[in-house]
Amino acid sequence: MRKQVQLRELIAELLGSMFLVMVAVSPVILLVDVFNAPVGVAVLANAVAVAFVLTALLEIFGPISGAHLNPVVTMVMLFEKKVGALKAILFMLFQFAGGIVGMVFTHLMFLGDVGSVLTISDTVRNEHVFFGEIFGTFILVLAILLLVKAGSNKISIMVGLLVGGQLLATSSTMFANPQVTVARMLTSTASGIRPIDGMIFIAMQIIGALLAYAVYKLVFAKSGTEEK
What does pTM read for this prediction? Predict the structure, then answer.
């Protein structure tokens, strides 16, 4: 597999990550801060928006970079030797950069309602909510690994539906993505997360991804189905 880093791949990861953060945050601002809707309604709208837009982003950027858009996905692809170490590091850097840019642009769209371009969040997400990030990231990463292994041509649809559904089925509303988590530390809106909780979220996401990879390797260990 081609592992040389190409500029178009980095741009794809940056743009995809940017739009992913925008769709993860904008519906909550629109519903809660603009329309004064209940947070529960905003979460439902957010799940639908994320499912639709993530599916589109995977279709758009998948042929260019693989559309990881998520450092833990890049991490397991590095383990699988789908990407080299340099490409993995650069992908992660551009994902984090894209997420922060996405948050800036989101705030600019709603500047009259949020009041600032970037703000450190004080939204508390702790205790039992942390476990939601393990489960959400686990199923996301395992699904991606299995779909890639099977050579599925429906990865974008399956992942979009999975993330949209799990957003409503996890106590954390399924961040499941370190770059999205960092970006959401920088908003004062209901979609934010205070940095101390965000760092624990990221630790839980890494644990969930590692558990998914361990299960994946166990399933295919010495089965004779590993690709040479």
Answer: 0.94
